[in-house]
Description:
339 residues; 5-stranded mixed sheet; 33% helix; globular; binds 6-O-phosphono-alpha-D-fructofuranose; hydrolase; membrane
Amino acid sequence: HAADANRTDLMTITRFVLNEQSKYPESRGDFTILLSNILLGCKFVCSAVNKAGLAKLIGLAGETNVQGEEQKKLDVLSNEVFVKALTSSKRTCLLVSEELEEAIFLPPTPHGKYIVVFDPLDGSSNIDCGVSIGTIFGIYMVKDKNNVTLDDVLQPGNKLVAAGYCMYGSSCTFVISTGSGVNGFTLDPSLGEFILTHPNIKVPRKGKIYSVNEGNAKNWDEPTTKYVESCKFPQDGSAPKSLRYIGSMVADIHRTLLYGGMFMYPADMKSPNGKLRLLYEVFPMSYLMEQAGGQAFTGKERALDLVPSHIHERSPVFLGSYDEVEHIKELYAACKANG
Length: 339
Ligand code: P6P
């Protein structure tokens, strides 16, 4: 029975990554150990997020609980979980979190060769209304683990060795790339294992969806305005695009990866660098989009080529289907040519 055979031949993420890593004979399993700690953090956060609504009802998460203790807000709790998981992996030497003003330099007792940048719970303002939220991460290698400096994390996104996200929604979906394509895994809570459900994700070359906060339209620049106009009133006789904007980056990106289209958080007069953070939002999602056959552009250059000047730097971003990003690049080039 093929179905039974499939059911027993479960491709767990650990097996999948071990297969991938076996291509590198020198690999000593450090990455697999790091990843298993990231996954542990995701399972914990998934469980806490799923209880958040209920906990709020009975006064636990984010409120004072029955013992009258102030419960940690979920994003603070998530940050602590990932810092502890990454530290105890003994495979990291430097951490940057959206929740922490300063980077964490781990003492060499021993520490590892990996640098992890992460947003422990992106979109957490959406928790109370039950919208999907997520953890976003990127992984760099340190040059010399006996001499770790902040420059080791102020690297362009094109130096990432891996990136991914975990979306806490109707199911817990983990999407990752280690540089040879993008694969998606879904948590089977009865096994506590992430199972391969979306092998070799490729973003459609064109898309019928655009995703942007139209509330910022008054402040957009000319290329952005023209691009959105072309989505609503196409001049080539094609059908207008649909607008889908969840306001939670992991959810908007996951849809864009699977269905295609354009996700954008452009610069505007109010915020010339846009809103999204370069290291742990723009770079990881741009890395995934390129690995899936799409593109990521800042309005000036390829997003992954940007060199951060500080760990919480922001950047505008247009990312998604190859042809959609090509269109916005042409509009910016034309605008530049016309001065
Ligand atoms: P706006 C959530 O706060 C977030 O960081 C991303 O997850 C999301 O894409 C963006 O901000 C939404 O921002 O300004 O449209 O509400």
